[in-house]
Every structure is written in structure tokens, then in C-alpha cells.
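WARN no homologs supplied; continuing
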Amino acid sequence: MHIDILTVLPELLESPFQHSIMKRAQEKGLLSIKVHHLRKWAVNDYGQVDDYQYGGGAGMVMMCEPLANAIEELSKERNRDDPGAAYDEIIYLTPDGEKLNQKIVNALSLKENLLLICGHYKGIDERIREHFITREISVGDYVLSGGEIAAVVLADAIGRIIPGVLNDETSALFDSFQDNLLAPPVYTRPEDFRGWKVPDVLLSGDHKKIEEWRNELSFKRTRERRPDLQND
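OK structure emitted
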């Protein structure tokens, strides 16, 4: 899978993809992530990519020209024969997009090429949303300083479930939110810490009973903490 990220603050994206699972995914050749500075397509020598909004109001808006030129050039780089088919999705990270969940992540992990647009200031010119963006995603009902952190969240969630990325390929299947369930409690050594003991069933060696216990606890925890998931 290849992910391009378009941003006005590439520095914010330097560290997250150079460590841990994302680093290993790229070293294995299973995932490539390339960050692009939008100011490369600025409208003048000052690096301008934003301007005042029509109609007045506080806050700047990311301009059409830099975004359109960037999207079109990156699309040609991905597929010179058919730039319109270069990306499976061109995603704008925005608070008013559809709320990210595991179902969306699972679907996106099956794609080959994604372009993530990081909003900033008051957002991007609506005409870019109308003519270029294919999907709009929010990471939650709150506002961040920009779309960079949201892009990291999305790329990380997608990258970690690509087959072969995790050392234990089955572990992602048992994460919270797979099958709309929260993960069960987990324990490690020592068996007894300050009188707080590991449940006997986990020490029994009976894998069938352990699986039943984990399933029961997953349903119980979901009912108690996120009953809304059972309604999806």
C-alpha cells in the first residue's frame, strides 16, 4: 500500500512514521508513506497557500490553486496513463467528515493508493471538496489544530492491519472494535501481585474455556462501556 500525505506542516509528521510498527511496515516493503509540503505548490515566492475567506470572518482558508495543482501532479506521479484513477480514495481529514471506526479502517486497508489531505486554518476551499475529495473522515467530535494528527491516526490504524505488518498476524483480529466488541482484560506475570490474582481460568491451560471466558468478558465489557457498538 502507498499513502501520500499533503500538509502545510510536514515537520509534525516526521517522527510518527519513523518508529515502531509503522517503521517496520515500511522496512518490510508492505507500506510506503510519503509526506508532501503543500508550499511546493504555493501561488507566489512567499509560499502562500491560504487567503482570507469571502464574506468576511475570522480565520484563513487553504486556497484552490495550490491544492488542485498538488493533487493533479501527485496523481500523475502515481499513474501517468490515467491520473484520474491514481488514487483509490482522496481523503480530507475534517471534523465534519464521517466518524472513523474499525469498519472504515478495515475497508481502507484493502486499497492500494490513498491520498490524505490535512486541513488547516479554517479548512480548505469548498470547491476542492466538491471536485477532488472522494471521502471525508473525522477522528472524533472535537477540533484539532490541523489534520496532521488525524492523518497519523488514520495511517497508523490502516497500516497496522495490513497482513504481515504485525509479528503475530492474528493479533489485529482480536483488537477492540473488531466485530464491534471491546477486547477482554489481559494479564501477565506475576500471577499474584499485592494479592491481586490472575483469574484461574487463564492459568488452567484449557484453551476452550479460556476462549469462552474471553468472549464472555468481551461482550460484558462492551455492554457496560460501549453499548452503542451493539446497535451498529
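The beta strands are 2-7, 32-37, 50-52, 60-62, 89-99, 113-118, 135-138, 192-193, 196-197.
OK
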